[in-house]
Amino acid sequence: MTNVSHSQETKATCPYCGVGCGVIIEHDAQQVLGVRGDPDHPANFGRLCTKGSTLHLTAQPMLQQQVRVAQPSLRKTRLSADTPRQPASWDETYAYLADVFAATIREHGPDSVGFYISGQLLTEDYYVFNKLAKGLIGTNNIDTNSRLCMSSAVAGYKQTLGADAPPACYEDLALCETLFIVGSNTAFAHPILFRRIEDARKANPNLKMIVADPRRTDTAQQADLHLAIQPGTDVALFNGMLHILLWEDLVDTAYIESHTEGFAELKRIVRDYTPQFVADTCGISVGDLQKAALWFGQSKASLSLYCQGLNQSSVGTAKNAALINLHLATGQIGKPGAGPFSLTGQPNAMGGREVGGMANLLSAHRDLANPEHRAEVAALWGLPSVPEKPGKTAVEMFDAVEKGEIKILWIACTNPAQSMPNQSLIHAALKKAELVIVQEAYSTTATAQYADVLLPATTWAEKDGTVTNSERRISRVRPAIPAFGDARHDWQIAVEFAHVLEQQLRPGLPTLFPYPNAESIWNEHRESTRGRDLDITGMSYHMLEQQGPQQWPLTTGESSGKARLYEDGVFPTASGKAKFFPAQYQPVAEPADARYPFRLNTGRLRDQWHGMSRTGTVGQLYSHAPEPCIQMAPGDMARRAWKDGDLLQVTSRRGTQILPAQASAELQPGQVFVAMHWGAEFVSGHTGSGQPALGVNSLTLPVFDAYSKQPELKNAAVKLLKAELPWRYVAFAWLPQYAALAVQAALRSKLAQFPYASCVLFGREKQTGVLLRAAGYEAATSELLAEIEAQLGLVGGDVMKYDDRKRGHTRRIKVSRNVDGTPILSAVALAGDISAEVWLKEYLQGEQSVQTLGRLLLLPSATPPAGFQARGKIVCNCFNVSETDIQQTLATLSGSADEVLSLLQAKKQCGTNCGSCVPELKRMIASL
């Protein structure tokens, strides 16, 4: 940390995806002033994506006051879901919790409690929670949202290579000759890695990039070969490629014989995966299948990147293992530029796996089912034993809560009331639980509303500990500013509660939690890894401070970790050999049929993160995807005479949600896509039964993989009907920074009073606006609209009003003056006829003068004023460059695609900062 004037800098790690980018936090020791990429961090070398580069905007004091949990609160008697919690001290809260836990365990046993934690916790947090559940309480009912993210990757590695360890590293992106990306829109989900891919392709024009994805995403559009396979056919694709590799004699027989086992059985299986069968199954051409196989097999170094498209599946383990089979069969592993490389979704899903923070694991990649492993952990913790009964995994845990088997549920740093599949069951479980504890930084999550006990936790810029990224690299997370309010570190809360609970469960015995700080926890975790595949006994906080992030394994006496695993062909299995997995293609768990003819896929937006509890507080991050929608193929929309903006009722066998339609050339016929982020906090309404709609995950499928227990979130069957909601309403306003998020939170309670409604932010930097959109069968009551408009500041004598009550049309316009006295729009509400929204919203967001518009502001007309031109969506968030800006500039440029891109960047700056928009810029150039 250095001190320059009153400004200081602290190195930390980005709290978003598993790339693990280093950040430098600029602050004054009390508040965050800015953030930039750490040029010395080997994951990103100073680069940050749109989410990382706006981190400082999520930590502004006025924002924090509106959304952070500031102190503990609890309700000891739940009369109804609306019974308010009362503020409490930490000591009072711990005492209450310990009493309830002890009584419940005495009456119903230790398995009557469960912990659902998060891949966004630090390793130290994870370790303590794992010990609290399995060591002190004696239950394996502890699982994590990583179950929704990476458990199939874990199972795939263990089934084939013997241990949960990605064998490759980021440097391999620059060294491979063929890059095979499967089930990952890397350009959106891991933007900084995609920058490294762009660099590698520029340095090596011969590098071949293959992308297998049902959607033609920004990643797929940059590929040399896009395999637009049908959803769920990945195993058939990989087995078909292996069939061709065998036929073309492109397998490495010597490697197979020396370093693997089980190939004969797999060879018999893939014999049936002929090119024509696979092409028909996957919906691709035989030629493209053969090209992919030959590129992969003939390459001197083939690297595979994969993520949720493989993992979030009822056959996710088979998908992962079948891809790994390709690498083992060709010897494409354990050497530079090669290997099967799973991309981690969350910032510390890897760290959670390392400490065994899941229902079937123990510390240091030990298996709960192994008696020797249980004995080793018991000895380390100073206990006679740890429980052997398997714990409930994520979906199973909420099933058990709903059935009354689990009485107490402790949720930390995750939002299952938005992110879990089959949301109706999740909400029913949270209502039924006898006690719900939510440990959270943000008060605005859907899950926080169910908390009987709400515990304030620290968040990024306040936390202290470590995380592990996708390439097994451990980085420090350092605090730059004090904890907000009375918030405490996640590990600290667990330790302090454990001390109180020990007095009832282990009176008179030494504590199991002798941890004065995060480093002491990490040191115990380090000892648990001794002799294991992830041995870090040669690592220390001091090393991380002095030498920077380090990869495991790094054993005692070594000065650096291993960049690549299995270079000697020896694997952590009983025989020392890798095992081929006999993967067979199985049709999807819920195929489309006559009643539910569309296949729903979910995935990430470029500029949002998970349930948006953090990114959703920054208006700027809505610019690229301003509102919820359901995307579908243009031909599917045309055949039904649907157009962009039409409201569609999307229904699966589990739930229903109304969403605006949006045509997308990325989608194949019969497929639809909804971003995973749109939960009930941002889009809702009420269903025909009067129950609130619960967002995208009210539609998704809870069936899970038999090995990994990871649920199928990628492939649900749905039907679409046009929602006949003739009455429309939209209201939007600039709001003071100290009030915008509080207003948005207040408006969320109004969403379910309409058949359809959404509420989002807009803005730039520190300027924030709120937009609410709604639709109904008939006009909403004037009282409801008055409440909404009062929240948005549409009250008082300076508000212009137009009312046509007979036709149900109303209009509210508020004009303010900017700093130089120019009259501009500050708030607008339109009901009934909302056609003028198109240009009124542009006038307001662009802060254009309305000096000459006069009565035009009140006329119900879709015709904009003379000279008006819509900017279109924002493509470059860093410099606020719109689609229209770019198209107009491109019309003036000429040259090769690369030359045009360089000229465009020079003129408009787009793509010159974080680079997240570069794939879209290339697509726009290619379409000229």
From TrEMBL:
SMART domains given in the database record: Molybdop_Fe4S4
GO CC annotations, alphabetized: membrane; oxidoreductase complex
Gene3D superfamilies reported for this sequence: 2.40.40.20, 3.40.50.740, ADC-like domains, BFD-like [2Fe-2S]-binding domain, Dimethylsulfoxide Reductase, domain 2
Gene Ontology terms for molecular function: 4 iron, 4 sulfur cluster binding; metal ion binding; molybdopterin cofactor binding; oxidoreductase activity
Cofactor list: Mo-bis(molybdopterin guanine dinucleotide); [4Fe-4S] cluster
Protein name: Nitrate reductase
The keyword Transferase appears for this protein: no
Gene Ontology biological process terms in this record: cellular respiration; nitrate assimilation
CDD domains: MopB_CT_Nitrate-R-NapA-like, MopB_Nitrate-R-NapA-like
PROSITE patterns for this protein: 4FE4S_MOW_BIS_MGD (PS51669), MOLYBDOPTERIN_PROK_1 (PS00551), MOLYBDOPTERIN_PROK_2 (PS00490)
Domain 4Fe-4S Mo/W bis-MGD-type, residue spans: 7-63
UniProt xrefs under InterPro entries: Asp_de-COase-like_dom_sf (IPR009010), BFD-like_2Fe2S-bd_dom (IPR007419), BFD-like_2Fe2S-bd_dom_sf (IPR041854), CT_Nitrate-R-NapA-like (IPR041957), MoPterin_dinucl-bd_dom (IPR006657), Mopterin_OxRdtase (IPR006656), Mopterin_OxRdtase_4Fe-4S_dom (IPR006963), Mopterin_OxRdtase_prok_CS (IPR006655)
Keywords: 4Fe-4S, Iron, Iron-sulfur, Metal-binding, Molybdenum, Nitrate assimilation, Oxidoreductase
Keyword Cell membrane: no
Family affiliation: Belongs to the prokaryotic molybdopterin-containing oxidoreductase family. NasA/NapA/NarB subfamily.
Organism of this sequence: Parvibium lacunae
